[in-house]
# Entry
Amino acid sequence: MAENKAPQQQMRMGPPGRPGGGPGRGPGMGMPKEKPKNSKKTIVRLLSYLGKSKALLIGMISMVLLMTLTQIISPMIQKEAIDCITITESQLHVDFEGLKKALVSMGIIYAFGVVFNFFQGWISATLSQQTVRKMRNDLFTKMSKLPVKYFDTHTHGELMSRLTNDVDNVSNTLSQSLSTLVSSALTIIGSLSMMLWYSPLMTLISLLAIPLGLWIVNLISKKTRKYFKRQQESLGDLNGHIEEMITGQKTVLAFSRTGIVIDEFDEINKKLRNYSISAQIWGGIVGPVMNMIGNISFTLVAISGGLLAANGVISVGTIQAFVQYSKQFTRPVSEVANQYAMIQSALSGAERVFEVMDTTPEEDAGRNNPFEVSEVKGNVVFENVNFGYNEEKMVLKDFSIDVKAGEKIALVGPTGAGKTTVVNLITRFYDINSGTITLDGVNLEELPKDGLRSSIGIVLQDTVLFTGTIRDNIRFGRLDATDEEIVAAAKMAYADEFISRLPDGYDTELSEQGSNLSQGQRQLLSIARAILADPKILILDEATSSIDTRTEMHIQQAMIALMKGRTSFIIAHRLSTIRDADMILVIDSGRIVEKGSHASLLKQDGHYKKLYDMQFSRT
# Structure
């Protein structure tokens, strides 16, 4: 297809019964409805992505395990070093040989710890980036398969936020928190085992504060989840507003609505600020609370250890080792608590990403049916078709037409009558509510959508160009086209003249949306792209609306040649461009009120005659 664009590229308020579409919000948009957060399900899905990089995951866990072992062994060696120094009967005794061995062993252990820590960080970074790359690819692939209706009812900025901000949150957390979580689990197990080995009584005392900490974390997490969810949703709204305003900046300036736009932005930004503050406060309070509980536990351990040492139950070295293990036991809990805000943000982002992934993709019941574009003749029949973007309001009502292969059909009528909707149904951007549409006698629902759309060429009023060269944009109509065919298509569309005047010709780089070209030049490239595609069915939606009168005459000649032998649907407000159409359909309120040739409709003195007189009365 030449272009595959959403049917309505309007501001937020579209006509009733039609999608808002485009950069704006569709019906029912605004703040997304909040759903209960299912952290367990989200974590399981994230782990499934991590499992796709098993070698890196095993390597990371191995490095964390070795690094944890160095941390567990260190206090044991410190105990031996301290116990080499004893006092008996007011005499100081030092086992220098034992102290020397202990110090050397400590140095070796610490050196290995540094090496293991470096490789753990390197592997963790690689693992996290590889994981989010898979996730981002899956999300983009899923978005490309979603129906047009989905994009008509979601802001572009909000979807971009999920693809960038939400995935980045997951990436940051995986790179910074994943290894910490694994290390914390191993450290807690190892430290608790050593604490029990040295003193079960002191272990019991140090664990008294743990239930209190877990209870507090559970209370705080209920608040934190809610605010992080709203923070991510508000960020999506903000991105949507920014994208919408940048796209429509000229319109904003032309209507002097800068103040209103700024006020709207400030309101959305204020919501984001409030939710972010609440999320950060509740997420950040967990760390200090856990540190306080850890200090209480440490104090209890020190007091009980001193009493035991005074009674000769344990040595001073044992107290020191136990204190170190006690710190190692509580430190992972504090580290996880300090990263709690980041983890909650990542889970919120991952959940929003998975919400898109779980959206039902565009259905295509005929995708496995045989279809050859070269065999398409172009007979299109609408039979008693009823369709509405919303079920409560039908846009097309009992719509029936019989278009023979090679005929040129013009669709005219007031805005909102249903002209563009006919195009949306032919291309199956939307599926009908009732009735049938056939191509060469075969129901469209039985045809593969890719094959069907490959046989259709579209030139829209709002031209879509991509970043790249002019040559690349024309070749988008047919990727295997040669340079000679591209030039021939451009000449047929009368685009070669202005392209040749550019410094780099066909290799001229286009900026975003081709903004370094005039609207008329962009339209010419769009027409050249459709010509190159050589479609069996051609759809022209106000294709010459942005072309000056002189250029329009040349375009009309090119279009006559292009449409020859092809079934063509022409949507036009300029009635001068459709005089040679085989049949003109006058649509009003979703129904065909008149049909016939240009001459016959003028004789009927009906709707078409009134439209014609309105346009040409001044002339």
